[in-house]
Amino acid sequence: MLEVIDKGGDTATHTTPLLFVHGAFHGAWCWDDHFLDYFAERGYHAVALNLRGHGGSPLPAPINECTVFDYVQDVNAVAERLPVRPVVIGHSMGGFVVQKYLAVHRAPAAILVASAPPTGIAPATVRVACRHWRSSLRTRSFSRPLDFFAAPGVSRATFYHDATPDEVVAACTSRLGPESARVLYRDLLYRHLARPKQVSAPVLVLGAELDGFFTPREVAATARAYGTQAVMFPGMGHNMMLERGWEAVADRIDSWLTVTLR
Questions:
Q1: Among residues 46, 61, 137, 143, which is most buried (max CB within 10 A)?
Q2: Whole-structure pTM over 0.85, yes or no?
Q3: Are 137 and 227 in contact (CB under 8 A)?
Q4: Residue 187 region by backbone torsions, left for phi larger than 0, else alpha for psi between -120 and 50, else beta
Q5: How many CB atoms lie within 10 A of CB 221?
Q6: How far does CA 132 lie from the centroid of its chain?
Q7: b (16+ CB within 10 A) / e for 28-46
């Protein structure tokens, strides 16, 4: 049974639950720090899952054998436990998982938060590796990607921006966990890319101006692929739900859902 953090409940105002999907190395905790309480207090049923091998969710096989399809299966398993199909909200790698989920499962709407593009993460991977090549050489970055992304300086530069308080970065880095090299360096790199033309649900695309992974141009291209325009947030890094100013991101999601789910 996958571990979930479940807050709030369906109300007359909001009858559709929200299902939050975390990104690589993260867990449901990244949504629980701020977002779950925010949306529960506004009358939503807010649920965040831990994908297999993350948090308290079991891992039936070695983490490096997990595929993006395993993660899609996890999202669907939790979605099916809810009374109605949820809005799916994914961050980073979780945004890519959401895109793959949308291609084969129904959803009333979806939100991509600093999401991996449907065309994959090859350009981002090269940028990050070149920017931190010394750390890449010192760590087993291909078999144990966490060794690289949790290295001193890499976590801040990748997930946050220079003005983010040290305590926020330290709290995040201490909670990062192992991630599937197969997902990061095969599925999202070239093997199993997303197919936007198979997605019919309305999609909101949110990006961060100072994202250490994905450029504003890539975020804009993701939005175009889903027939919409990206909403960019200035002065924010990749972890938009944990950065200072996260309330503005949550407010934008809430206002969009209020209109979209009428």
A1: 46
A2: yes
A3: no
A4: alpha
A5: 16
A6: 22
A7: bbbbbbbbbebbbebbbbb
Tens-digit pLDDT profile for residues 59-97? 999 999 999 999 999 999 999 999 999 999 999 999 999
For tokens 């801040």, name the residue: 156
DSSP string, 83-116: SSPPEEEEETHHHHHHHHHHTTS--S-EEEESPP
> What is the rounded CA–CA span in Å between residue 73 and residue 51?
9
b/e sequence 160-180, b meaning 16+ C-beta within 10 Å: bbeebeeebbeebbeebbbbb
Q: How far apart (Å, rounded) are the C-alpha atoms in residues 213 and 8?
A: 32
Phi, psi of 105 (to 5 degrees): -130, 150
Please give the Cα distance from 77 to 79 (Å, whole number): 6
**Which position has the token pair 């199993």?**
192
